[in-house]
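Input record (Table S2, row 211):
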Amino acid sequence: MLALYYYPGNASLLPHMMLREIGAAFELRLVDRTSNGQKSAEYLRLNPNGRIPVLVDGDLVLFEAAAIALYLADRFPEAGLAPAMGTPERAAFYKWMVHLTNTPQAEYYAWFYPHAQVSDEAAAVALKQAAGERLDRMFDVISGQLGDRTWLLGERFSAADLFLFMLIRWGRGMPRPPRSLPNLNALAERVVARPAVQQALEAEGIKAPLF
Ligand SMILES: N[C@@H](CCC(=O)N[C@@H](CS)C(=O)NCC(=O)O)C(=O)O
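Output record (glutathione complex):
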């Protein structure tokens, strides 16, 4: 049995949406961040970094949202969440998955948790502002690359679109939210219209504004 350790709206939303798209049986296990559950001894045995999410599949214990996403795409190829191995489309899929995780997702860490990096209040404010400006530029590039395509890979929907939606959603409180870019807004609308995504959002108790 698959089990996903999650907290509503966190990086666990990507594998959660994928599991709903796949239609596999799985158990959702809440990590209670309100009591710092991600730093409990029990959870640290699953992910010594104390971060959410973790996927358990039998004896496999996997952390890192992007790694979980790539694993799920391979484990359930019939769900079509990634193009066939060895194709140019697969290469583009890797590009987006890696870019999204190590560029905007990593930048969000400074935006959401500036105090984890600097203790001085003025430095934290400056760090957050600089991270927000870098995120704006990253979303400009992603929006330009997306253009008027339906999905990041063109006509083909993939897990990368779910990933991008999650990152667009995280920016909904920014001074210039990603949804203010028409291409990104249109992609987020298309993702939210998917029944599996609606199920995941509802199961996590996520209400409007969704992004
Ligand atoms: N690179 C990691 C980042 C995970 C991450 O930072 N998760 C956040 C929630 S979105 C978290 O657990 N924050 C709580 C903390 O750092 O204590 C991944 O993609 O899994």
